[in-house]
């Protein structure tokens, strides 16, 4: 269950969290050189494995648990945006997810930034209520 303050922070942090997740996924997508010749046929030492993917998983298992936490927050926002029924509010949410400021959003949706703030408060409240009902 997320509090309204946590959801507000998640919306503010959404752009960099998404970038961090994407960069972590891209860093995992590497091609490593396979062993050829006599090294490939030689037995591995006791307690070692030749599976490079498994070795990578073991290495990264503890070091990047924060990426999982970020992904959980991003997933929550993405999976619960359907609770926003108003088209203008949905567009405001999308702009927030892209990192736009209240002033920039106000210019795009033709509202004063204080009105944008009130709409964001409504979005946060709806997402908070959705988090209470899912847990």
Would you give an account of this structure?
The chain is mainly α. Helices cover 70% and strands 0% of the residues. It is elongated and about 70 Å long.
Question: Could you write a compact summary of the structure shown?
Answer:
The protein is mainly alpha-helical.
Helix content, binned percent: over 70%
**What is the tally of beta strands?**
0
Low-confidence regions: none
The biggest beta sheet reads: none
- Average of the residue pLDDT scores: 82
Order of helices and strands: HHHHHHH
Beta-strand level of the residues, as a percent range?
under 5%
Backbone CA Rg: 22 Å
Number of alpha- plus pi-helical segments? 7
Shape: elongated
Q: Termini separation (Å)?
A: 6 Å
Structural class: mainly alpha
Task: Considering the chains and any ligands shown, give keywords for the structure.
7 helices, 70% helix, 0% strand
Detail the topology: elements first, then pairings.
Layout lengths: L3 H25 L9 H4 L10 H9 L4 H16 L6 H11 L4 H8 L3 H22 L1
Helix pairs in contact: 1-4, 1-7, 6-7
């Amino acid at each position: 269950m997320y509090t309204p303050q946590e959801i507000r922070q998640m919306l503010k942090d959404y752009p960099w969290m998404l970038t961090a997740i994407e960069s972590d996924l891209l860093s995992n997508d590497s091609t490593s050189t396979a062993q050829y010749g006599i090294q490939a046929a030689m037995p591995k030492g006791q307690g070692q494995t030749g599976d490079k993917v498994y070795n990578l998983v073991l290495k990264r298992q503890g070091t990047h648990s924060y990426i999982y936490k970020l992904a959980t927050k991003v997933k929550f926002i993405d999976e619960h945006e359907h609770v926003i029924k108003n088209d203008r509010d949905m567009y405001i949410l999308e702009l927030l997810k892209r990192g736009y400021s209240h002033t920039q959003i106000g210019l795009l949706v033709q509202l004063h930034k204080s009105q944008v703030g009130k709409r964001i408060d409504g979005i946060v409240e709806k997402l908070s209520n959705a988090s209470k009902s899912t847990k």
